[in-house]
Amino acid sequence: MKNGIHDETVDWDALANLRYRIRKFRHFSAREALKLGLAPQEHQALLAIKGHGKAMTLAVLGERLLLDRQAVGALVGGLAAREFVFVETHGRQRLLSLCNAAETLLDRLSQAHLYEIREMAPDLMHALRVLQDRRKLSRIVWMQ
User: pTM score > 0.90 for this model?
Assistant: First the structure.
């Protein structure tokens, strides 16, 4: 036992494999965004706004991207300056919506991302299944 964790209760290989699959996808995603002139975080912001389905507040975008208020403000300022997002003020709230240029970029990026996700889905699902199965086994052993 190290640091209170029993080595036999943690499937280090499965956990490392899952993290590797996630890193691979993030690397792919960043590379594709950069090819189209977007920083990875800009791409994530545009996708979050699009996925929200309606105008999004800065607070919700910050929550989705795990960013503080100041970082979200700077990110949105850059996207607005490049005419990717439209910022509308309603009272104290600033609402974000996508401009046509962002919609076009997202269409291109999403096609590539969906293809990549479908290609990697079997490996990712396997990594998750291994961890899920081990959790069930641990629970069964614990209950006996």
Answer: no
